[in-house]
Amino acid sequence: MEELRLLPSVHAVLQQNDWEGGEKDIPVSVIKKWVQEEIDALRLSLLKGSYGKDRERERFMAIVSAGVCKKMEINGAYTLRKVVNATGIVLHTNLGRARLSSAAVAHVMSAASSYTNLEYSLEQGTRGSRHDIIENQICDITGCEAALVVNNNAAAVYMVLSALAKQKEVIVSRGELVEIGGSFRISSIMEESGAILKEVGTTNRTHLHDYSAAINEETAMLMKVHTSNFKITGFTKTVSSNELLTLKEKHQELIVYEDLGSGSLFPFPRYGIGEEPEIKSRIYAGLDLVSFSGDKLIGGPQAGIIAGKSKWINHLKKHQLARVLRVDKLTLAALEATLLSYHKEEAAKEIPAIRDIVRSEEEIKIQAERINEKLASEYECHIIKGHSMVGGGTMPDVVLPTYIIEVTHPAFSASELSRRLREKTVPVIVTVKNDCCHIDPRTVDEADEAALLSAFLSL
Fold it and tell me: N6-(pyridoxal phosphate)lysine-modified residues are where (predicted)?
């Protein structure tokens, strides 16, 4: 095709435009890649016959340059970027789950920009342990004897099973063989760890005698898995952690371990929100070990926290996996600052995840009306009652009453409007439903609100 010869070269496009990273300091290598992508897209359009009639070299050059400029405006130098979460899903896994508190952000910045005593004892002037940085905080807040932090809760489960039950049997109820996001299954991780799964009971009903009858000389652990991402209702029966502990009277060598999944240090039931068990209640009951996530209901960074009896935690600390799965100073800084907030209930409400979950309907309604008023000049907007979700595979049966702004535009479909909002310098993520873009203010703070309005009003 003759027109293909008129396509500009990458070098020609770069020469004609003085980009050199522009204001956003984008590497030249990235700009070259974008130029090539735009030329390839134009070539494909010509081959498919979908390109219009204006087929001149200058026109092709202008199209490629405009495409690259648009990518520069949208993307900037970084792939990981801030977005506004206007979906109302508080722990949105795709959007990074929990936002850190201002105290946690400040502590991370301090640790990131300085040398720290990560593995240095200021008291002794000798090498220390990074485990000591966070252990006392976890012990104070949960009441446990000892604790260890790894890089996520899946890693925590794997480490407990591999270090304490390899080539031994672990008894789990069939109703608790859960799968969480990314096809992570308890049964699969157990197989990888070298522990031997022994299922008891049925999907909907498991009794204490099922566990008791399954114990033999090869049994190392009784494992309970909190079904944090689903609920089974109807003709059901489960065995509580407290009941499992009664079996230790006859089998004192058994480890009773509960994977709490999202975990919680905040009394959500006191606010009429769900029935999520508090971690400290499991520790006080006498469980040998519990594990839970740091970036879900705790509201901190991605981490897996293992807490419990010092006998077992000390064994885990000496295991080779402790080094493989350890976290860095930034995670420890964020987690330490987050946990400090839990010493007072009111301070815990300053953690964004907690704050957004317990926000009142009235507060959200006032914010919805304010946003609605500012968008009404260019959009058709309606405020309706709705519900938000906690998200992150947490509290699946909990709906949080909210107010939603339905937004439509005369020139754009809802999907087109949603796409254009995602292309902004600070992308805005909305929900598309019933041919409308839905804004749920629950997850939109003051700074986000300004970015959201700017995105909508600059289309």
Answer: 296
